[in-house]
Design goal:
Layout (H helix, E strand, L loop, with lengths): L3 E7 L4 H10 L5 E5 L2 H13 L4 E5 L5 H13 L2 E8 L14 H29 L2 E6 L12 H21 L4 E8 L5 H14 L3 H9 L10 H13 L10 E3 L5
Parallel strand pairs: 1-2, 1-4, 2-3, 4-5, 5-6, 6-7
Helix pairs in contact: 1-8, 3-4, 4-5, 6-7
Length: about 250
């Protein structure tokens, strides 16, 4: 098999990661990493049905060995890592006085350490090619705060700081690094927020969703496909002027 440039997407079986995989699959092979075999298989089968090349690996991004295995598998397939999308992430809401330290550490392990493991594993290939891109799916909480969400916000700030530093470090190799910071995106995480509002505010699901929508001047929650469009633009190399700086996609949310 001739060598082809591929995109690795962590958290690629659902939400923003799946939307990114679908978008990038129109441009070359995609390799998905996630926790659930059934979801990953379904995603790859659907992508292959469109004529795309898609493979996957089941694993926890918090485990460094998973990142190493993913890059090794990509090489076995005759592909070369050109783009990395770090989309795997989990939430960690809770008051600072009561949040479980184990939960705090787990959110950092996935959101921050997971990104680090994959960046470190994928960067040598990009350096060898003298080009590539790294998209860190952060959040508007990476540039601002939110009460009872210090854990998640801290990890998202860490991703932004990582992106800013790596943008400077890797620019000489032609590698673009962009932290992408959306506000509310129509994913499982927002669904969980709706459930929490129902429980704590005695709202209906529709009322809770409208409350989140009201945070945006356009009165909407961002579709994950719009985040995928931003990722594709980063991967195209046409946004080199953004290298290292966060791309904030908040639709004016506060």
């Amino acid at each position: 098999m001739s060598e082809k440039l591929c995109t690795i997407v962590t958290g690629g079986s659902r939400g923003i990661g799946l939307a990114c995989a679908r978008k990038m699959a129109t441009q070359g092979p995609v390799f998905l990493v996630g926790l659930t075999d059934a979801n990953l298989l379904t995603a790859c089968v659907d992508l292959r049905a469109t004529g795309a090349q898609a493979e996957y690996l089941v694993g926890d991004v918090a485990d460094r060995a998973v990142a190493i295995a993913a890059v090794a598998r990509v090489k076995e397939l005759g592909w070369t890592v050109r783009n990395l999308v770090c989309s795997a992430g989990i939430g960690g809401k809770g008051a600072i006085t009561s949040i479980d330290p184990a939960k705090w550490e787990r959110v950092f392990a996935v959101n921050v350490h997971g990104s680090f493991h994959f960046i470190q594993a994928c960067t040598p290939s990009m350096i060898e090619q003298k080009g590539g891109s790294i998209s860190l799916i952060s959040s508007t909480l990476g540039v601002r705060g939110w009460k009872y969400d210090s854990c998640y916000a801290a990890t998202k700030h860490a991703q932004v700081g990582m992106g800013r530093s790596l943008g400077q470090e890797l620019a000489k190799h032609g590698i673009s690094v962009v932290p992408i910071c959306p506000a509310f995106v129509d994913t499982d995480m927002v669904s969980q927020m709706v459930c929490n509002l129902q429980h704590h505010k005695s709202m209906t699901a529709d009322e809770a969703r409208r409350l989140l929508e009201e945070k945006s001047p356009r009165k909407r929650i961002i579709p994950p496909e719009e985040i995928a469009e931003a990722v594709a633009l980063v991967c195209s190399g046409k946004l080199r002027c953004l290298n290292g700086e966060p791309l904030i996609l908040d639709d004016g949310a506060e």
